[in-house]
Write a structure and sequence with these properties.
- 2 copies of one chain form a homodimer.
- Chain A is built from 13 helices and 8 strands.
- The interface between A and B is large, with 53 and 54 residues.
């Protein structure tokens, strides 16, 4: 297997992590989470989303979060938006970059935003061009890129075509989202190879969920296929609030720990991430799925002494 | 990455899975679990262990379990033993094969059996020779092969030397145990390569724990390095009862599901495994860590309709 010397982790716990939480999190606590992540050395944070407060009540304070977080030099604070109205709010609020997503699954896209994939893609093209014209970077996410519960597998050609159109419209980066946790390692490698072949040198991010226990195995297969950018969330929280049992993102601490063990640089400080995990666990009042925050680093005796 | 066309899964939930459970499981329920696993199509079951009932009370009924399980043709029912007395009991009880283990970590081995690695290895050599002389197969497990919380990493040469001695004594198979979940993918590949180079053609099993979230990633790296035999437990239960937070084995259903998605044959029936998961969850009265039994197969709409 081939592994990169370095990967870039995008922290999505403030947005993908919290959006499905049923109890309201205060703006103060969201700001504290983002600031803790910045302090961990992360290069990119998905800070919030500019969506309808009716659709996702947890993100109703997106403007306040953006105005109150500490903007560390070198950290890109991106935000997710579902449409042009959201993009305009995000630009106004000072986001460094905007993430627009379109599901490769027609039915999945309809259930999320009541439009076909083609309708959303056309809107995304306009959104990307307009946002770029205002001097703000845009990344395009192809959601359900590895399959959906409705249509089954998605043809790689469909994903490649969507990515190509978003890049042509001005997207500076592409992300492939395994929204409902359908991906498996062989398929991950195949889709990444197809995208990298069609769009050589594209800035490609991978967004996996651990729905069926394959999150970290998919990361490994993705690295072997040439990917170096991964979304992850503290504690492995997260999941689409419109889906039952979508399970969390891959866990940031566990990913950083794996990389440390493998000699792959991430730039993140595991101790600060564990602190962020403790903060989130106390905030949400339950143990989170991430393992390293509980088990500790490999080969450290403490795990035996606390029995 | 290279993947095999087929892997062999050894089911360890009746032994490694249950041994650390604090509440007594009835012999009837243990027998039902083993029989369910046999019905799933598994080729090899780690049915019980012949240890001191004082050390591991849960395994006190090893003889009764062995006498009451249904012995399906084609299934190897192996048992774990810590010493020659256990091996004699196991042979008497009709085990198809005996697993003897020695920890590569001196301190780990002392804490388990109050002997140095060298003392246990010498006893294992005698045990292997005597058991083989009685016509019963023996496999040697090198525990803590990937590191321990006491000494840190274990030199691959030490593991290779232990494996070589057990094979020379008559062990028909070798397993590498990541007893406390220290392994990471690059190291997994390196150690497997070292063992396969030193002992070409050896029947090599891998026993991973998911302590730090790397169980399935380690399986993937192991496959790429040429391994085709893996231990796993229904629901991902298990862990050394003497260790705090040792976390479960990799989950059988999740592994089988991954293999199905990747076109790797296992011979196991996922539906029967999910039934075994349900049985274990009701027996233990808590949700188990395995994911697929809850999320269902990939790309199946049911997971959305039950929200």
């Amino acid at each position: 297997m081939r592994y990169p010397n370095r990967i870039v982790i995008r922290e999505v716990s403030p947005r993908d992590g919290l959006q499905g939480e049923p109890t309201a999190i205060s703006t103060d606590d969201k700001v504290r989470l983002v600031d803790l992540l910045s302090a961990s050395g992360v290069e990119r944070v998905n800070a919030t989303s500019f969506v309808s407060p009716r659709a996702v009540p947890q993100m109703a304070d997106a403007e306040q979060v953006m105005s109150r977080i500490e903007r560390r030099a070198g950290v890109v604070y991106d935000v997710s938006v579902p449409n042009q109205r959201g993009a305009a709010r995000a630009v106004e609020a000072g986001a460094d970059a905007i993430m627009v997503f379109v599901d490769a699954s027609d039915e999945g896209n309809r259930r999320s935003v009541r439009r076909s994939t083609e309708e959303s893609l056309a809107e995304a093209e306009r959104l990307i061009a307009e946002t770029r014209a205002r001097g703000v970077a845009v990344a395009g996410t192809v959601g359900m890129a590895f399959g959906s519960p409705y249509e089954g597998r998605i043809a790689p050609e469909r994903v490649v075509r969507m990515a190509r159109r978003m890049v042509a419209a001005g997207a500076g980066a592409i992300a492939l989202g395994d929204t409902t946790g359908e991906a498996s390692p062989r398929q991950v490698a195949e889709l990444i190879s197809a995208v990298l072949e069609a769009l050589p040198g594209v800035d490609l991010g991978l967004h996996f969920h651990d729905t069926r226990g394959l999150g970290m195995a998919n990361v490994l297969a993705a690295m072997d296929a040439g990917a170096t950018r991964f979304d992850a969330s503290v504690g492995g929280i997260g999941g689409n609030p419109f889906l039952h049992n979508a399970a969390g993102n891959i866990c940031t601490e566990d990913l950083v720990h794996m990389c440390e063990e493998m000699g792959i640089a991430t730039g993140l400080d595991l101790d600060v991430l564990v602190e962020a995990n403790r903060f989130l666990e106390s905030l949400l009042g339950r143990p989170l799925p991430g393992k390293v925050a509980h088990a500790g680093r490999s080969r450290v005796p403490q795990i035996l002494e606390t029995a």
